[in-house]
Amino acid sequence: MQHSKFSFHRELGGLEVLHNIDKQEDFGRHSHSGYTLALVDSGAQRFYRSGGEHLASQHSVILINAEQVHDCRKASNGKSSYRSLYPTPELFNQLLGDGKAIAPFFHDAVVHDRALAALMDTTFNVLECDTSVLEKQSQLITLLSYLSNRQGKVTFDTKTPSVKQRITTARHFLLDNLFEDVSLDSLASLVGMSPFYFIRVFKAHTGLTPHAFQIQHRLNHAKALLRSGKSVSHAALSVGFYDQSHFNRHFKKNMGITPSQYSKAC
Predict the structure, then answer these.
(1) pTM for this one?
(2) pLDDT tens digits, 132-183
(3) 3-class secondary structure, 175
(4) Alpha-carbon 146 to chain mean position
(5) Which of 35, 118, 180, 248 is paired with 165 by a 20 to 30 Å CA distance?
(6) Could you state, in order of their start, the residue ranges of all structural domains in the chain?
(7) What topology does CATH give the domain 213-265?
(8) 3-149 has which fold?
(9) What is the pLDDT of residues 87-127, one digit of tens each?
């Protein structure tokens, strides 16, 4: 039986996300004000775009430009499901160059790219989780940057003293407020940049996104607490992780072992 799940993310510039599970109905020709970026989870979808017909099989990615007329029809027997998100051109513009660049145009309607499919799957999962705004914003940036880079490199200056100084200010703010739920908007506003330009420049200077930087330093504090004999639950709560499974996942990804294993080894 067909079931649809829709979510609206105000903190991500009004991003719309749709999950069509066991899709049965066909959609006639229409368009959206935002891009359509869809991951086919099972089955296949046939659709019209750019004057021609296209077939998207399982694990492929559908790319439809903003305002581009298209339709969508089930093209396989059995279960057919997909997840899609609809970022606006304005969101891409912010990402590509401090709000001044031109949003990309996707020439290919269907893309077979395992790395992109995996990245989209991760993004959908993060957007669905009860996690911090910074993590959701950072994950979306990673996805949109990957897509944008396929349309040509965007050059921006990361070497001027003013940019370096502003990134240093942001780093100090994150460290001073390490255990707070800091948003990307507040960080960008602090240094006078658009959120999506800021995250690109921050990563260019530090090697990490703001969210990854925050997590890394939280984990450093957690390890010190574990070494001092504190429990795993105490360490997790003390450094801003209110979900212990979330803490365990990040810790193991960083260290290769669980917090309990680390604590016992110390």
Answers:
(1) 0.65
(2) 889 998 899 889 888 887 743 444 444 544 788 899 999 999 999 998 889 9
(3) helix
(4) 10
(5) 180
(6) 3-149, 161-207, 213-265
(7) Arc Repressor Mutant, subunit A (1.10.10)
(8) Jelly Rolls (2.60.120)
(9) 988 877 776 555 455 578 888 899 999 999 999 999 999 99
